[in-house]
Amino acid sequence: QILDQWFESEPLKATLATDAVIGAMASPHTPGSGYVLLHHVMGELEGRRGAWGYVAGGMGALSQAIACAAVAQGAHIFAEKAVCHILLGKDGRAQGIVLQDGTEVRSKMVLSNASPQITFLELISQEQLPKDFVQRIQQVDTRSPVTKINVAVDRLPSFLAAPNARDGQPLPHHQCSIHLNCEGTHLLHQAFTEATHGHPSSRPMIELCIPSALDPELAPGGCHVVSLFTQYTPSVLAGGQPWDEQARNAYADTVFDSIEAYAPGFKASVIGRDILTPPDLERIFGLPGGNIFHGGMSLDQLYFVRPAPSYSGYRSPIPGLYLCGSGAHPGGGVMGAAGRNAAHVALKDFRCL
């Protein structure tokens, strides 16, 4: 409805509508999806409103930059050290964490950027939490439609709508987000409807990016990395079928067939691919249900109810324990707002100890 008020071109409306359903098990016709669109365009990058960008060196370089800044301020970082549970004192206050190897790390406060589900349902005994709070966390909608496919290719895709130059160098469109199967909002709705019945979309929504077109260090000369953000794939397949290797490859083949229709020769250029379905995203990255936002960005799960009513201010029912990840206000996105806000709240409390 919002897009109809501002635009006439159906392909343009459909392309913009993808930002209204990114990471959401929702259709462009789903009430509240307009907020998800706003969420993705409300920010700015280097003074440009609504702009997005690539991180030089890949997304891991952003993590390394944050890590270096933290270490410079005296932080100690321990990678590959899984947390077993959060330590609580006799007064019920967070006193640190216990690692899986039994190591105890004592602290006056604990900040968790894990999802609310992991933080409160796995790292803390539920007996220590209010029953209504536990019930709220259990009921958070974490459905995810996303399957991420990382691809290595030996040449740039050449699209029928804009063929490659003879020298094979990246063109302007190679340096942007390329939306496929998005000629009309009805296509997005059809793809969503299939997933609600437990079937991966037969004509999935595809957002294709080629970061190596801007950052040559990501791939050897002449080769490229292609990032495919695709929807819709249900977390649980119809009939309880598992997301096994056969199901993964079948869906990836559907995605590649779609790209081939726009860019003949794409499938022949593929050197390797990495397929991450919703269960893979949950297992590898700790994303509940594979949801990249730690929970749906619907209006009933935002602002003063994220992650639960009365606990949207980063504090939790456990004194000294703070939530600072995407499951806290204002939600998902590479912006660090939840972490920054949580740090301010924690510092304020720390000065009062």
From TrEMBL:
One GO cellular-component annotation of the UniProt record comes to: mitochondrial matrix
Report the sequence similarity comment from the record: Belongs to the carotenoid/retinoid oxidoreductase family.
Location in the cell: Mitochondrion matrix
Quaternary structure annotation from Swiss-Prot or TrEMBL? Interacts with COX5B; this interaction may contribute to localize PYROXD2 to the inner face of the inner mitochondrial membrane.
Chain segments annotated as coiled-coil in the UniProt record: none
Per its UniProt entry, which superkingdom is the organism in? Eukaryota
Official protein name in the record? Pyridine nucleotide-disulfide oxidoreductase domain-containing protein 2
The protein's predominant localisation is mitochondrion
Ranges for domain Amine oxidase come to 32-167
InterPro entries, per the entry: Amino_oxidase, FAD/NAD-bd_sf
**Species of origin:** Ciccaba nigrolineata
Function, in words: Probable oxidoreductase that may play a role as regulator of mitochondrial function.
Keywords in alphabetical order? FAD, Flavoprotein
| A molecular function GO annotation | oxidoreductase activity
Q: Which PANTHER family match?
A: PHYTOENE DEHYDROGENASE, PYRIDINE NUCLEOTIDE-DISULFIDE OXIDOREDUCTASE DOMAIN-CONTAINING PROTEIN 2
Q: Which gene encodes it?
A: Pyroxd2
